[in-house]
Amino acid sequence: MSGLASMRPVRVVGIGMHPYQFPSETPYVHLGLTALRGALADAGLAWPDITFAAIGTGAIGMAAGRVMLRHLGSTGLEVVQVENASASGSSAFRTACLMVASGQHEIALALGVDKFGSAQRAANKDGVPRLTPEAEIPAVKFAMMARAWRDRFGLTREDLARVAVKNHGNAARNPYAQFRKPRTLEQVLAANPVAGDLTSLQCTPRGDGAAAAIVASEEAIRRHGLDRRRAVRVLSSVSSSEHQVADEGWSLVEMVQRSGLAALEAAGLGMAEIDIIELHDAFTIEEIVYAEALGLCPLGEGAAQLRAGQWDIGGGRCAVNPSGGLLGMGHPIGPTGIGQVTEIVRQLRGEAEGRHHPGARTALAHMIGLGSVAVGHVLQRD
């Protein structure tokens, strides 16, 4: 399914970011080129060395990539623009990896960039009237999921709030995060109510930002004299969409489970070998439910593991969302999935200053888009 296992090795050789921020007047070109220049400098490459670029964006508009990249010079590189909702950046990264793995290109760029915009959904134009428009609001859907886990497993309001406390605490140590202020349990619980048991500090807002990752073949690494010790291997990359499930099931949860386990299987690894997970936590309940679905812990035991510090940086076996996740780092849509990759690369290199998870060697990045698509990558340092 991943396509990478049977192809030539792919490694991330350069990463860069523009810090995520609240909606601003900063042009998207500045955001994107800041991340790109950072990735080129990190890799030790020049712009003409890149022959393929996948641009992940959800709200900027047509041909955003070409308009942006021409400011660095017209080199004739192949450019594609990828829109896959919140998984746009993840899908762009997968596309770049496949281009190198297949031998079509030696060095490829995945760049996610977005500004706060309308991002109108195609589902609102499908001609099918909605019986309950409120049920389509993401916060409502995940508030219902939280109630389901409360009724089935005894999940409490405090359990949900602890996700936000952990991730805001991680983000406070991340210079690229949009929210760099630690929060207490009392502050999270007392924040403005949004839906059900979810408060405003348990829901991610949108903003601006950019993230870039450059991937290369082994031959390109040798030819350009790149530092292979800092080049992180992409073991697998999997993309899928939802399946039909029984009426009592959650298709979203099953999709996360299927795609995440497929990424692990394609990498030839089990969850016990994963040291870091960056996953979709636009709402606090998602981190608990998806961690369970991915097999980090048995179903219904996520809250207990969180309380015990098992998902903390340095304190647990597997650090969950050390970047701060969507809740703390931010969720600009297009860059989000590539931002996960940049965090993982920093962690595996030992360069995540102030938030390093000791001994980390293998990591999983997993994103969903509008609850209907999922993309997972497994990365590993030598």
UniProtKB/TrEMBL annotation:
InterPro entries assigned: Thiolase (IPR002155), Thiolase_C_2 (IPR055140), Thiolase_N (IPR020616)
Q: What keywords were assigned to this record?
A: Acyltransferase, Transferase
> Which segments constitute the Thiolase N-terminal domain?
24-181
Tell me, what's a Pfam family for it? Thiolase_C_1
According to its UniProt record, this protein's enzyme class is transferase
CDD domains associated with the record: SCP-x_thiolase
Where does the Thiolase C-terminal domain lie? Answer: 243-372
Q: Give EC number(s), comma-separated.
A: 2.3.1.-
* Molecular function in Gene Ontology: acyltransferase activity
Specify the protein name.
Thiolase family protein
Which source organism? Falsiroseomonas tokyonensis
